[in-house]
Amino acid sequence: MDLLADALAVGGVRGALGARVEGADPWGVFWDPVDRAVIYVVTAGTAWLDVAGHDPLQLMPGDVVLLPTGASHVVSSTPGMAAPACSYLVPADASESGAVLRLGAGEVRTHLLGASYEYDPAVSTPVLGALPAVVHLPGDHSGTCLDDTIRLLARELAQPQMGTAIVLDRLIDILLIQLLRVWLATHPEEAKQSWLGVLDDPLLSAALTRIHSEPAKPWTTAQLADELSVSRATLSRRFQARTGQSPGAYLTNWRMDVAASRLRESDDTLETIARSVGYTSVYAFSRAFTRARSQAPGRYRSAVRRTAAAVG
Q1: Cα Rg, the chain, nearest whole Å
Q2: Other C-beta atoms within 10 Å of 223: how many?
Q3: How far is CA 266 from the centre of its chain?
């Protein structure tokens, strides 16, 4: 099992093109915080990123920067600019129409791709939420596939063709995976402090693979330890140190994340979903889900779909 792919899927992570941006010096724009991750790719020229609490960051061609929690920020041609605010409806409209978002009135010197990733903020395995507030990968990615994806993005943006919007959406999904790969490889100590760190821990990744593969199974710490040929004490200690949870707590939280995903994505009955995550009665499942999400399963499904319909 691919634990990262599984966590992203259950977390409802979905990428979408924000806008193609052209910066004509001088230019700048302020964005309010949003409940999604925001990513920028510099395909030509340079830009500055100002995020509250962080030093201004100069972005060069090929740079990728991710704001996992969608913090408010300024993107501009010079640092410290008092840039005008812009509604997120503007890039959404530009993306919908295929238009380029032009900033400034002079000569265009900078080309950016802005995108966002929606995700379930209540998920207990927060892949994006586990990252630093600003993730910056400089343009030299040591020949990784991230470089190839950026070149494909730049080429598609420079020469839009039939189906360009679909190609860009797919590349944006790929971009996130490759960004995470590069970040994990280049920041191993930071990764160890988050859920992402378990991906490089053979014992814990094996334990999580079993839980993710069979969430309905009544796993106990002793059963997991026996399958992995380690002591219960060793597994408990490693689990707590790296995830901040006991194996039993992780299992319960993962079950609720899987249930939330199925409530969002499927029309399965509550009985079916309850059985799929190890509950023999809808009542017991509903009580556990309400504790985890502060909302009964049926109400959660209705609320999520109302929100999706309003956004759509």
Answers
A1: 21
A2: 14
A3: 21
Using a cut of 0.90, tell me whether the model's pTM lies above it: no
Q: In angstroms, rounded to a whole number, what is the distance separating the alpha carbons of residues 47 and 59?
A: 5
What whole-number distance in Å separates Cα of residue 154 and Cα of residue 131? 26
Residues 251-275 have pLDDT tens digits of: 999 999 999 999 999 999 999 999 9
Q: What is the DSSP string of 186-250?
A: H-HHHHHTSGGGGGG-HHHHHHHHHHHH-TTS---HHHHHHHHTS-HHHHHHHHHHHHSS-HHHH
Task: For Cα atoms 144, 72, 157, give the angle at the middle one, nearest 5 degrees.
Answer: 45
- Kindly report, residue by residue over 79-98, the tens digit of the pLDDT: 988 888 887 777 777 766 66
Please give the Cα distance from 31 to 228 (Å, whole number).
Answer: 48
DSSP state of 278: T
207 C-beta neighbours (distance < 10 Å), count = 26
